[in-house]
Amino acid sequence: MDSKELFENNEEIDFQSIINTLSREKILILFIVVLSSAITTIFSFTAKPVWVGRFNIVVKDDAYDKPSIGNNSTLGVLNSFSLAGTINDEKQTQRLILKSPLVLKPVYEFVLKYNEGKTPNIYKNNKKPSFEKWLKSYLKINFKKESSVLDVKYQSTDKELIIQTLNLISSKYKAYSKRDKEKNLNKTIQYLETQSNLMQEKFFNSQKQYNEFTITNGLGDLDGFIGLGNSANPLLNSNVDNLDLSRLNSLLDNQNLLRIADENLSNENSAGQRYRFLFTQLEKYEAEYIDFSSKLKPNSLLLQNLKVKIDNLKSSLKRPNEILLEYRKLKNEASRDGRILQQLENNLELFKLQKIRTPAAWKLISEATIDDKRVFPHKTKILFLSLISSFIIGSVIAIMKEKISGKIFETNDFKRLIAFKYLDYIKGFDSEYNSKTIIKNLKIKDVKEALSILHLSEYFFKNEIFEPIKLSHKLLKHKFLNYKNLKEIDNLDSTIIVVSPGTISFQTLEKILNYLKIYKDDIKGYIIFDNDLENINKI
Question: Do residues 139 and 87 touch, judged by C-beta distance below 8 A?
Fold first, then answer.
């Protein structure tokens, strides 16, 4: 047998040994199982039932509620108004907020006070559960798989407490959620107000320079001012309560803002009226010069006079051209500042409106309810687990019992320890059968031949002589010996050893075998005898 086969054989022997032990100790195991099942059954019928209540909420992403503030690339400041990260981050943030002491501490204190009101001495020596332990033991808050639905569960033996606790959680989270969003909006409004004030000052200066230059050079209307025309701004002139929020995006559309600003700066067409006649004369002289140059010679007096007039007009229009360029620069600067100021004011009004109508970051989609089935005790489940656990515990106790006893129960252990020849395994009460089995193994032919039998047990070194195996004196002449009459071996023809499982320990067997070494030539072998037919170990 190679090492692999030996290993597999040993594993099989160990497994069989466990089965044999469980079979021998079945009464003990059955007693433990029945006792445990009885206790469990009594407990399941007398234990206070634990119920679980729940409500569901949909956590919304802030991105759905953020106001659109235009796409104008000139307004880089608008990039500072991103109020949310990814959807997953927002969901997890809402879950952590709902589990935080900031929201649940009042609920925790309410539960403690409620329990003390019901049972005054429930917290002996003021040993109250910590917030973390209470949260972990009674409250479960998790997202349903692949959804934004947050499932809030609370369990207790008191149904009234469950409903009140869930409603309190809902109200506390609602208040915190709105307060948190208002805090963010207040920061945004404060920032917009600061930027709007700065932009008003800047727009005032650019508008002032533009107006002064216009009046000094006689360009456009005499007043020269750019009106902001509130009549064109629906946010500034509408009743907040009557404003349709669904139209906010269209109201703040980039093209609308540009149209409003361009309408307020409609004076550009009148800017060059003072020099229009000179430009018209220049165009007329240039047209005449081209026409006559095709008919007259270059040194013609008429062409020379036209050339002088054209040069004089161009020279006189050089300064007005510089004035118009500066005018356009100042106008564009004032127009740009006006558009930025216009959009900042629009955004400020929008966030003020958003603050008034701030929604919660969640939506309740189910009321607090209690499940029909209690979560504890689950009688069938408890009984099943009790049967499994008690069987395992009983089996361990049975194995430990045999190990502690130190007795030898397995035939393989006898074969491993006893150095004498193994003859047979006898398992019956029939004296004739037992006698014939021994005669056959020893090849006894003479009926008068006497046999001495050494029964190895815990009583071997005592005065008592036991006869565990029944033999027929008619078929086999025999005598049982022990330590006291062992010297009679010399007067008998043959000697065998009889051992029985569970009657001798490893320690005693080793001691007896050491003592019998001096009789090794007289002992023909050993027989294993087992009276218990239900505990037969197959050889």
Answer: no
Within 8 A by CB and 6+ apart from 332, the residues are none
| DSSP conformation letters of 222-261 | SS-PPP--GGG-HHHHS-GGG--GGGHHHHT-HHHHHHHH
For residue 89, how far is the Cα from the chain centroid? 14
Q: How confident is the model at residue 354 (pLDDT cuts 50, 70, 90)?
A: low
CA distances from 537 to 20, 35, 214, 302, 406 (A): 8, 30, 120, 144, 19
CB 230 within 8 A of CB 338: no
Question: pLDDT of 54-101, one tens digit each?
Answer: 988 876 654 444 444 444 444 444 444 343 345 666 677 777 877 888
As beta bridge partners, residue 529 has 426
According to DSSP, the residues that pair with 526 across neighbouring strands are 422, 497
> Is the pLDDT at 464 greater than 70, yes or no?
yes
Chain mean position to CA 534: 53
Place of tokens 């290993």: 7
CA 14, CA 19: separation in Å to the nearest integer? 9
Strand, helix or coil for residue 155: strand
User: DSSP class of residue 81?
Assistant: G
SS3 string, 260-305, reads HHHHHCCCHHHCCHHHHHHHHHHHHHHHHHHHHHCCCCCCCHHHHH
Q: Which of 108, 54, 66 is nearest to 90 (CA)?
A: 66
pLDDT, position 261: 46
Q: 131, exposed or middle or buried, with CB in 10 Å at 0-12, 13-18, 19+?
A: middle
Token pair recorded at residue 498? 């009889």
DSSP secondary structure, 484-511, as one string: TTGGGGGGSSEEEEEE-TTSSBHHHHHH
Q: 3-class DSSP state for residue 162? A: helix
Higher pLDDT, 512 or 127: 512
Shortest CA distance to 54 belongs to which of 171, 143, 137, 141?
141
Distance between CA atoms of residues 332 and 338, nearest Å: 10
Q: How confident is the model at residue 511 (pLDDT cuts 50, 70, 90)?
A: very high
Cα distance between residue 290 and residue 286, in whole Å: 6
DSSP assignment of 166-198 equals HHHHHHHHHHHHHHHHHHHHHHHHHHHHHHHHH
| Per-chain mean pLDDT for the chain | 76
Q: Alpha-carbon distance 91 to 71, whole Å? A: 27
Determine the Cα–Cα distance for residues 154 and 107; give it in Å rounded to an integer: 12
Task: State how beta strands 149-156 and 139-143 pair.
Answer: antiparallel
491 CA to centre of own chain: 84
